[in-house]
Design goal:
Elements (H helix, E strand, L loop, with lengths): L7 E3 L2 E5 L5 H7 L6 E5 L2 E4 L6 H17 L10 E4 L9 E4 L3 H4 L2 E12 L6 E8 L10 E2 L2 E4 L6 H13 L3 H4 L3 E12 L2 E13 L13 E8 H10 L5 H13 L10 H7 L7
Parallel strand pairs: 7-12
Antiparallel strand pairs: 1-2, 2-4, 3-4, 5-6, 7-8, 7-10, 8-9, 8-13, 11-12
Function: Probably mediates the hydrolysis of some nucleoside diphosphate derivatives.
Keywords: Hydrolase
Protein name: Nudix hydrolase 20, chloroplastic
Length: 278
């Protein structure tokens, strides 16, 4: 990303990227020198004395709980994200999900497009969720049928099955027919830091008579939309949760709704993996 970004590993020590929008948070971390040190003015690193993933995780968690009590870490989830250079690499530590954006770490999620194929024409329609207006993030916006962060200690397949039931009432035997179809990636600057995500994409063809039913309080309801309406909603840029746009565009490309003669086709293909996809 250029500038004063510092991200990666020095030996076994995770390095935190510092940006102008996160300077205040970085200064707060400097108040804990037993955990965070400053090898250069533009970076923080974990104390080398924290020599194992377990020690680092405990130390960082203690700091984050202190900052959360002071209102500096919002939306505490109680879910741990692994901090690692790539998805299958051993984690250097585990970090509370709500703090991921503050540190600019790469996080992972699963996003599923649930669709039906109409008899006769073969046209596809997507199930679209409306997020609860009580959610702290993107309240009332449109979403996939199923999506969720990828927590530590759970396979993507098991996570899809869990999220399918919790968010849409999809029974396990049907959820297991979801097909992994790739991934999209991005980096987005936010007030708290940099959100760096890799989203594993799944397609799930559903029976015509299946109607999703939310089992938790994250979704208000579902509607089934023709692809043309979905594409218009994405192009409008106002209705869908931002990262859902990418996964839907990927679906539209793969299923031929958008083709090489569509203006911007190659730019769309390139942009879907604009972040570090590793």
């Amino acid at each position: 990303m250029g500038g004063t970004d510092v991200y990666g590993t020095h030996g076994t020590h995770a390095v935190v990227p510092i940006r102008k929008g996160a300077i205040m948070f970085a200064e707060e971390l400097r108040r804990f020198p037993d955990v965070f040190q400053s090898p250069t003015p533009a970076s923080l690193t974990l104390n080398p004395a924290l020599s194992s993933p377990e020690e680092r995780s405990r130390a960082v968690d203690d700091v984050l709980k202190t900052l959360q009590a002071r209102g500096l870490v919002d939306g505490w989830r109680g879910e741990l994200y692994p901090v690692a250079p790539s998805f299958h690499a051993p984690p250097l530590l585990s970090l509370e999900r709500a703090a991921a954006v503050h540190f600019g770490i790469k996080a992972y999620g699963v996003h599923l497009n649930g669709y039906v194929r109409l008899p006769g024409s073969g046209a596809l329609e997507l199930w679209v969720a409306t997020r609860s207006r009580l959610k702290p993030t993107w309240p009332g916006r449109l979403d996939h049928m199923v999506a969720g962060g990828q927590p530590q200690g759970l396979s993507c397949a098991a996570n899809i099955e869990k999220e399918c039931w919790e968010e849409a009432g999809v029974p396990a035997e049907l959820a297991r027919t979801a097909v992994p179809v790739g991934a999209v990636s991005y980096a987005a600057r936010q007030a708290a830091g940099v959100k760096r995500d890799v989203l594993f994409c799944y397609d799930l063809e559903l029976p015509l008579d299946f109607v999703p039913q939310p089992q938790d309080d994250e979704v208000e309801g579902f509607e089934r939309w023709p692809l043309e309406r979905v594409a218009e909603g994405v192009a409008g840029g106002e209705r869908f949760k931002d990262n859902c746009n990418l996964v839907i565009i990927d679906f539209l490309l793969r299923h031929g709704y958008l083709g090489p003669d569509t203006p911007g086709y190659l730019e769309l293909l390139t942009g879907l993996r604009s972040g570090d996809c590793s």
